[in-house]
Design goal:
- The structure holds two protein chains of two kinds.
- Chain A is of the alpha/beta class.
- Chain A has nine helices and ten strands.
- In chain A, the strands form two sheets. In chain A, strands 6-7-8-3-9-10 form a six-stranded mixed sheet, sandwiched between helices.
- Chain B folds into three domains: about 55 residues, no CATH class; about 45 residues; about 220 residues, Orthogonal Bundle (MetI-like fold), CATH 1.10.3720.10.
- Chain B is about 75% helix and about 0% strand.
- Classes of the chains: A alpha/beta, B mainly alpha.
């Protein structure tokens, strides 16, 4: 069980001449919950997008559950079907109903019979508490509901790893909690999760490890308590100082 | 009423000027410029409509044994259409066999009508059109089931126009989708080939493509081998329509956000699954207006086959006037085919509007 499910070794990536990931080394154990934070443009989204090869790394080695990510298309599709991803802008399929969104990949990729796929979809839609909306189209749902459907859509593939790319950043404030609650539930069930997020409360209560990135590098990683209480690097302190600024002026 | 009174707090929008008089004042005489424009248009209509009615109805000759009566009268000679409609509609197809092209036209029209029902699309659309196409071919050519064989050299008129247009678009459309996907492919060879093809065909007028199909193609073939003239025209049409439709489809593809591709990729869908289930259904829905625009343009462009000697609807109308006994009734002849063209194009236009609305209603976004 202690065998790592994700291994990144010496990973580099460039966008043109811009060096966006610099020598990333990261190992994730099964069931580990990791929060990745950092200023915008620090490469945190790119890092998790490399894990299902939405972005291609140019140097180094990435292994997902024993499979190395290379240019082999069939292998990429196989890895992708084991790695769920939730996007900032949900990216639900607007021409399909909520239920169809959740059924599509099960039938096409997992080759499940329609009836079984339906049942699986209902289970997860129930879990994200969206059962009463399953015949609606994404355009008829609120942002929080859409993101919960997007999570259910990923879970329907029974993935081994879930990637979250700023899942609450595009939501109205009053909808953040309903999405975080679903993510916390998922963490409690032992899902391996990598979350790019600025929700530090979530990081504190759920994460096993917090990773801080800046300028394409992993600057610091630690358990949340230690990370927030005693950040090691100056850059981390600066970042935390900015995002944890008290909302009310001190008395 | 009582309900709104109970709620009390409902504030109604201020009343607008209503009734027919209010409408006229608001829409036709809203300002001095509006009033002037309205009067100008009314005057134009008054000048135009009475003479038209006089020509088309009041002074028109509806029945006549020959053209003499018509030439005496001042109005339209509908007797000419009555005399020639079968030539215009069916061209030189053997006279006593013309029920066959008539039935073919009916079949194509019925196929159009059935295709309006979106519920049959998933399962029946393709078999329906394949079966219908087979039936049309069978009727037109014959040679089996006791039907006399009719060379396609003798085909003409409305069925020829419909066959050219429908076959052309039905074959060109999937080709166009592939070309559009190819042009956006990540494989450089595919991309360059598709873009090259599209640019090549778009840079050449349809007329010259038809000429090349008629004149150049036989030169390139080994001696003794010939390709039927109709088939050559059909191929030229397909090549041309595919290039134009490909650009329209590409426009639709470009309208789909990158996130849709990423979401499909992240779920592990293969390229073709992603395109078939996620991207194309959205891209084609976006592209309905320009697609139908292209369809309508090509339906009418089939009339260009006259230059290589095929007798489509417009050519048969022309040849009807060429009859010395009925020489000169070109107004009636062209008006007749114009109405036929218009009917089909208007149907396509209305259908596309309805389809757009119904897709929009479904997705509500």
């Amino acid at each position: 069980m202690d065998e790592p499910i994700i291994r990144m070794a010496g990973v580099h990536k460039w966008f043109g001449a811009f060096h966006v990931l610099k020598n990333i080394n990261l190992t994730v154990r099964r069931g580990e919950r990791i929060v990745i934070c950092g200023p915008s443009g620090s490469g945190k989204s790119t890092l998790i997008r490399c894990l299902n090869r939405l972005e291609e790394h140019q140097r180094g080695r990435i292994e997902i559950d024993g499979t190395e990510l290379t240019g082999n298309l069939r292998r990429i599709d196989a890895v992708r079907s084991e790695v769920g991803m939730v996007f900032q802008h949900f990216n639900l399929f607007p021409h399909l109903t909520v239920l169809e969104n959740c059924v599509l990949a099960q039938v096409r990729v997992r080759k499940r019979p329609r009836g079984e796929a339906d049942a699986v979809a209902r289970t997860y839609l129930e879990r994200v508490r969206i059962m009463d909306q399953i015949d609606k189209y994404p355009g008829q749902l609120s942002g929080g509901q859409r993101q919960r459907v997007a999570i259910a859509r990923s879970l329907c593939m029974t993935p081994k790893i879930m990637l979250f790319d700023e899942p609450t950043s595009a939501l109205d404030p009053e909808m953040v909690k309903e999405v975080l609650d679903v993510m916390i539930g998922l963490a409690d069930d032992g899902m391996t999760m990598l979350c790019v997020t600025h929700e530090m409360g979530f990081a504190r209560s759920v994460a096993d490890r917090v990773i801080f990135m800046d300028e394409g590098e992993i600057v610091e990683e630690n358990e949340p308590d230690a990370f927030f209480a005693a950040p090691q690097s100056e850059r981390t302190r600066l970042f935390l100082g900015q995002i944890l600024r008290p909302t009310a002026p001190p008395l | 009423m009582s309900q709104s009174a109970k709620l009390g707090a409902i504030i109604r929008p201020p009343p607008t000027r209503s009734g027919p008089l209010g409408w006229v004042r608001a829409n036709l005489f809203g300002s001095w410029a509006d009033a002037l424009l309205t009067l100008l248009i009314l005057w134009g209509l008054a000048e135009l409509i009475p003479p038209l009615v006089r020509w088309a109805l009041i002074n028109a000759t509806f029945t006549a044994a020959d053209s003499r009566l018509c030439r005496l009268a001042d109005g339209a000679c509908w007797a000419f259409i009555h005399e020639k409609y079968r030539l215009i509609l069916f061209g030189t197809y053997p006279y006593d066999q013309q029920w066959r092209p008539l039935l073919a036209v009916v079949i194509i029209t019925v196929l159009f009508a059935l295709s309006c029902n979106r519920r049959i699309w998933a399962r029946w659309l393709i078999p329906l059109w394949l079966g219908g196409g087979l039936l049309v071919a069978l009727l037109m050519w014959g040679g089996v089931f006791g039907l006399d064989y009719v060379e396609n050299r003798l085909w003409g008129g409305l069925p020829l126009t419909l066959i050219l247009a429908v076959t052309g678009l039905v074959v060109a459309f999937p080709a166009a989708v592939l070309l559009a996907l190819g042009r956006r492919s990540e494989l450089p060879v595919v991309r360059v080939l598709c873009a090259g093809y599209i640019e090549l065909i778009r840079g050449v007028p349809l007329v010259s493509l038809l000429f090349m199909a008629a004149v150049m193609l036989p030169l390139a073939l080994p001696s003794g081998m010939t390709i039927d003239k109709l088939l050559r025209a059909q191929i030229a049409f397909i090549l041309f329509a595919a290039a134009y439709l490909a650009e329209v489809v590409r426009g639709g593809l470009q309208a789909i956000p990158k996130g849709q591709h990423e979401a499909a990729d992240a779920l592990g869908l293969t390229y073709w699954q992603k395109m078939g289930a996620v991207i194309l259904p959205q891209a084609l829905a976006v592209a309905i207006p320009p697609i139908v625009n292209t369809f309508i343009a090509f339906f009418k462009d089939t009339s260009l086959v006259i230059i290589i000697g095929l007798f489509d609807l417009l050519s048969t109308a022309k040849s009807a006037i060429a009859d010395p006994a009925w020489h000169g009734f070109y107004r009636e002849s062209y008006l007749f085919v114009a109405i036929l063209y218009w009917a089909f194009c208007f149907f396509m236009s209305r259908y596309s509007q309805w389809l757009e609305q119904s897709l929009k209603r479904d997705h509500r976004n």
